[in-house]
Design a protein that fits this description.
Strand 10, helix 5 and strand 11 form a beta-alpha-beta unit. Strands 23, 24, 25, 26, 27, 28, 29, 38, 40, 41, 43 and 44 form a 12-stranded mixed beta sheet that branches. This protein has an 8-stranded parallel barrel with strand order 10-11-14-15-16-17-18-22, surrounded by 5 helices. The chain has a 7-stranded mixed beta sheet with strand order 2-9-7-8-5-3-4. The longest helix is centred in the middle third of the chain and has 17 residues. The chain has 958 residues and is of the alpha/beta class. Helix content is 17%, strand content 35%. Helix 5 packs parallel to helix 6 and helix 14 packs parallel to helix 16. It is built from 17 helices and 51 strands.
Length: 958
């Protein structure tokens, strides 16, 4: 509920009783209750969030093509157009929307069938369910209502975005529906203003996970009375009316006008989300009392309305009268929590009056449950109110169930976040625990009401800390990963079959969805990724599809070009061992491409030539590199493009290792999660004084570094130990006085040869808790086969990488695959020759230097371009007399030509008859004066060499 709580949906008027399900089973046109189980060799279900309720696998796949259309019933045109926008954003395919057309092979079809039913899904299926059929000829989504059709498009998009080239789906069929009608989130904007752009993004993002209710808490104030009185308290009311009667109510530091609100409603309508507006009274009411002090206790020195005054209730009714016409959803929330018990009877009268008043405005009332504290029971309270059951003391789910209310699980102990507080999940919800054991009918892992009894569940953000400095994006960082978890557990309310680590992997692949403008605009590195944010250049790029999209870490930005071939170069922050290159091609994959790596950007080791364009990964073999080039990318009948190119470090030694620990806080947080390569999963230790985690690498390895990514409950002091046998341990490093909070420690020590590594924590920052996201032992293994070249002098003495005197190059090869032999080099079109020592590169111009060797039994090769300009440019001057039609005597025309085989000409100057030097503009120099003339010219190349002066005499006019 709103405010600081003592720790401790819109519901379709539908309960899923056995009798109702049995009756549905007799209806005509009923879908099969349980599809036949998938047979061997049939396709697995698409990995989506939330997971599909059913799946019958087929064979083969649907492939999206350039001619694919979206064909829709007229009643689903708006869904189809949103689908088309999102399809282009997520896959790069622009599909025509054909309303009322006949489907043809390759199309994606949306059909509305109000008679479609499903026994297990019941009314929830009729409201929000769909059937999705995929085969080689097309995709068909059939739904009883538009919401279900929209959710079917989310399943299609999530499946496509994870496929190679984002263009295919496995053949099969699902019948899918939610287990709960309320799947939502509540945001407190009263205590902290969130921009309209952020609000629209949240509505859009929620729909990606099939969450359907966004509750927005529109007014509130700081919790404790300031020393100077309530007049000094922060408060916020976030709706701004044009009616002068409400002047002064809206907050000056941020409020939504009618146009803002309409944009929220439009966004919600386009994304199958319902907005639940909440105006909270009679507690949390400092905004109303600031506006009209006479409404409060103590002459206005209060944040509670004085309900003994009739004008208090009448004023709140007037506020609802003013703003309810803005609200397009069926439900409106009037708060009604945490009022002083001394005013219990007046509170109950207010509760009932407001519930009836909201119904009179055509809306279903909602409120936070407070009956247990106020009266010990719900006797005398209006029962036609949907209750947020937020705290067992104030009014929990069991009480609401017994009293016959419709209610939503919003339990504070499980589902509240107060950003950066030391209570109510200040660092975000326990997502792994919720995923593993929580359900909407449970508190923690304990069922307190029957399965299916709650309308559903919401989690909530409360911005209690009004004077703390943090941003809306900081809040998003705390709760981003809770949306998919709550979506999963409210849509498919059962214990998941996939692990939390597997679930998070799917979440990362599908992202937060299309259409976002403010959130998730900062890329997230994948495990071991070195290239996030790296500088990247391409030989060509299309408008709006720049090369930097390849390394920005965002799922829905891409690089593209209409050229038939292209080159891309990625520059890492520093030279480091690289393990593999990955690419996510956009549209049609190229025919082939080459990959090379370099330490200096001059000399490159060829890693792979003519890679099959459909290949998404190339092993880089632990070669040292600062630059990775993807060259000669050759189109295969379509434009070239890619969503992401990534360079990864070599696989850490902890990949595939086993972990043990002193114990766990709960079964959902085993030590294996600390070495799974995922920084969103964690090991949580038991509450012993000195917990430890140990990793068996499987065999003896050499390493000199351990990287520890701590959760907020981090270690203050700890010891890193190594062992050959897991019994006798040697200290490698001791760390003391480490900072509190989440952090990443890179612990370096002299390289050791060991099989086991153990971290023992001797002091905690948040005792008794300790959590570790990831323990990584980086590999320091040498590359299997490498070849390199080095210039002397190392740095060019001219501009833009040009040498003005001939450099020499030295070549070397090596690696763990064997001794090097047969090191050879050739320059330009010359012959191959042994490279036993330095080789001078003396030819003028850009010289291609190729070199090769054998390491063990493996051939390795490299190349580079060395720019040499040791020779000054040349210039020639000529003169002629060209007859003119109008005169028997013609002027003299001097011609100038400059040549350079190196860096190129920078400038040319001339002078006439010993006068001043003048910059030449490239045109002939015309002299029309009588007498004999001499023109001199000189050229300067780009590295500063100046040519000898050339001259030509010529007779002038007679």
């Amino acid at each position: 509920m709103s405010g600081t709580r003592t720790p401790s949906t819109h519901r379709a008027a539908r309960r899923r009783g056995a009798a109702a399900i049995a009756a549905l089973g007799l209806m005509a046109g009923l879908l099969a209750t349980t599809p036949a189980p998938a047979q061997a060799a049939t396709n697995d279900a698409p990995e989506v969030i939330p997971a599909l309720q059913t799946w019958t696998g087929g064979e083969g796949a649907f492939v999206l093509g350039a001619e694919s259309r979206i064909v829709a019933d007229a009643d689903l045109e708006s869904v189809a157009r949103q689908f088309a926008d999102d399809l282009e954003a997520t896959t790069g395919f622009a599909a025509e929307v054909a309303v009322g057309a006949d489907a043809r092979p390759g199309d994606l079809t949306l059909d509305l069938d109000p008679g479609l039913e499903h026994a297990d899904g019941g009314e929830l299926f009729r409201a929000e369910g769909y059937r999705l059929t995929i085969d080689g000829d097309g995709v068909e989504i059939v739904a009883p209502a538009s919401q279900g059709a929209f959710y079917g498009t989310r399943t299609v998009l999530q499946g496509l975005v994870q496929s190679p080239q984002r263009n295919s789906l496995p053949a099969g069929e699902t019948v899918d529906w939610p287990n709960h009608g309320v799947r939502g989130f509540s945001l407190d904007v009263g205590r902290r203003f969130f921009t309209p752009e952020f609000v629209r993004d949240y509505i859009t993002m929620m729909s990606w996970y099939k969450l359907n209710e966004f509750q927005i808490h529109l007014n509130d104030n700081e919790i404790a009375r300031p020393a100077g009185g309530w007049k000094d308290a922060y408060d916020g009311f976030r709706l701004k009316s044009d009616d002068p009667a409400f002047a002064g109510l809206a907050s000056e530091d941020g409020a939504y006008d009618r146009a803002d609100w309409q944009s929220f409603e439009d966004t919600a309508a386009a994304h199958a989300v319902v907005i639940i507006p909440e105006i909270d009274a009679p507690a949390h009411s400092r905004s109303f009392i600031r506006w009209k002090p006479e409404l409060g206790f103590n002459g206005g020195d209060s944040d509670h309305l004085d309900l003994s005054k009739p004008e208090s209730t009448e004023t709140i009714k007037a506020v609802f009268d003013e703003f309810v016409p803005w609200f397009e959803g069926p439900d409106v929330h009037f708060g009604a929590d945490e009022y002083p018990r001394s005013g219990a009877d007046q509170y109950r009268e207010f509760f009932n009056t407001m519930a009836e008043h909201i119904r009179s405005l055509g809306k279903q009332p909602r409120a936070w449950g407070s009956m247990s504290v106020m009266h010990g029971s719900a006797d005398g309270y209006d029962r036609d109110v949907i209750i947020n059951a937020w705290n067992n003391g104030w009014y929990g789910m069991a009480k609401a169930e017994a009293d016959g209310y419709r209610y939503i699980n919003t339990n504070d102990g499980d589902l509240y976040v107060v950003p950066f507080a030391n209570y109510y999940h200040g660092n975000g919800l326990n997502n792994a625990g919720l995923y593993a054991t929580w359900l909407p009918n449970r508190l923690g892992s304990t069922a307190v009401v029957p399965e299916g009894a709650p309308e559903g569940a919401m989690f909530a953000v409360w911005n209690d800390l009004v004077h703390e400095e943090y941003t809306e994006l900081d809040v998003h960082g705390l709760v981003r990963d809770s949306f998919p978890v709550i979506a999963q557990k409210t849509w498919d309310s059962q214990t998941p079959t996939r692990s939390y680590g597997e679930f998070v992997a799917v979440q990362r692949r599908i992202g937060s969805g299309p259409g976002l403008t403010t959130i998730d605009r900062t890329g997230v590195a994948r495990s071991g990724e070195l290239s996030l944010g790296a500088a990247v250049t391409a030989s060509s790029s299309g408008e709006g599809t720049p090369a930097e999209s390849l390394t920005d870490g965002l799922a829905l930005t891409r690089w593209a070009t209409t050229e038939d071939t292209a080159d891309v170069r990625i520059e890492l922050a520093e030279a480091a061992p690289v393990g593999r290159f990955e690419v996510d091609w956009a549209g049609i994959a190229p025919a082939s491409y080459d990959v090379a790596v370099s330490d200096d950007g001059v000399f490159w080791q060829q890693v792979a030539d003519d890679v099959d364009g459909t290949a998404a990964s190339v092993e880089l073999g632990s070669l040292s590199a600062r630059y990775v080039a993807v060259r000669d990318i050759r189109a295969d009948g379509g434009d070239l493009g890619a969503w992401r190119m990534s360079v990864f470090a070599p696989e850490p030694l902890t990949s595939g290792a086993t972990a043990t620990a002193s114990g766990v806080e709960a079964a959902a947080f085993p030590p294996s999660l600390a070495i799974d390569g995922d920084d969103k999963t964690r090991w949580s230790a038991n509450y012993v004084a000195q917990p430890w985690i140990a990793v068996d690498l499987g065999s003896e390895q050499q390493f000199g570094e351990v990287v520890l990514a701590w959760e907020g409950a981090s270690a203050k002091d700890y010891v890193v130990e190594v062992s050959d046998d897991g019994a006798t341990w040697t200290t490698a490093a001791t760390m003391t006085g480490q900072a509190a909070g989440a952090r990443v420690d890179t612990v370096a020590f002299e390289p050791v040869d060991a099989r086991h590594v153990r971290v023992t924590v001797t002091a905690k920052n948040l005792s008794p808790y300790l959590s570790l996201f990831e323990l990584t032992v980086p590999s320091i293994a040498e590359a299997g086969a490498w070849i390199s070249a080095e210039l002397s002098p190392e740095a060019p003495d001219g501009p833009d990488g040009w040498y003005t005197s001939a450099p020499s190059a030295s070549f070397a090869a090596g690696g763990t695959e064997g001794a090097p032999s047969g090191v050879e080099v050739r320059i330009g079109d010359g012959e191959w020759s042994a490279a036993d020592g330095p080789v001078e590169i003396g030819a003028q111009g850009e010289q291609r230097v190729e070199y090769r060797a054998t390491v063990g039994d493996r051939r390795v090769a490299g190349y580079g371009i060395v720019k040499v300009d040791t020779v000054a440019p040349s210039v020639e001057v000529g003169a002629d007399r060209r007859p003119a039609v109008s005169s028997p005597r013609s002027p003299v025309r001097f011609t100038i030509e400059a040549h350079d085989d190196g860096a190129g000409i920078a400038s040319v100057e001339f002078r006439l008859d010993g006068g001043s030097w003048t910059a030449w503009d490239g045109e002939d120099v015309v002299v029309d004066a009588p007498g004999r003339h001499t023109l001199e010219a000189r050229a300067t190349d780009l590295v500063g060499h100046v040519s000898p002066v050339a001259s030509s005499p010529a007779p002038g006019r007679g």
